[in-house]
Specification:
Elements (H helix, E strand, L loop, with lengths): L4 E2 L9 E5 L5 E5 L8 E5 L2 E4 H11 L4 E3 L4 E4 L11 E2 L5 E5 L4 E5 L10 E2 L24
Parallel strand pairs: 8-11
Antiparallel strand pairs: 1-5, 2-3, 4-10, 5-7, 6-7, 9-10
């Protein structure tokens, strides 16, 4: 088995709380107002091959994965960083910046205290077959 690269447990710049989400499972919520166009923090985890990531998703249902596009993915499933609880929305309030080995979250607009943080996941390993439950007016219905 290839050596795995573990990313640092990056700090979250704005504090969040994890609670039940109307979208899916648990969600990340702002505990204070967060200005627009600000970095929220970096998502940490273990960098694994894309092949291994897809196997984990298929075998274990692991869904805290971000593909890098270079044959690798970030498995954030066991990361204690609360950014991993940002759910998908077709009308998001954050965006995810993905580089060759790093995942960063930024706000798209001002986020109010108590508001759930969401991100448009774009294309996923679900191949457009997972029903979307975001409830946004522009919902694509599947991700």
């Amino acid at each position: 088995m290839a050596k795995k690269l573990v990313t640092p447990e990056y700090k979250i710049i704005y504090p969040l709380r994890v609670a039940k989400s109307k979208i899916a499972g648990k969600g990340a919520y702002a505990i204070e107002n967060i200005p627009a166009r600000k970095k929220l923090g970096d998502l940490g985890g273990v960098i694994i091959t894309l092949r291994e990531a897809r196997r984990l998703v298929k075998d274990l249902g692991v869904i805290n994965m971000v593909e890098f596009g270079n044959g690798h993915a970030l498995n954030a499933s066991l990361n204690p960083n609360d950014l991993r609880f940002i759910n998908h929305s077709c009308g998001p309030n954050t965006y995810m910046r993905v580089t060759h080995n790093r995942v960063e979250f930024y706000t798209l607009r001002k986020i109010k205290k108590g508001e759930e943080l969401t991100c448009d996941y774009g294309e996923t390993h679900h191949d457009g077959k997972l029903p979307c439950r975001c409830g946004a007016p522009n919902c694509r219905k599947f991700i």
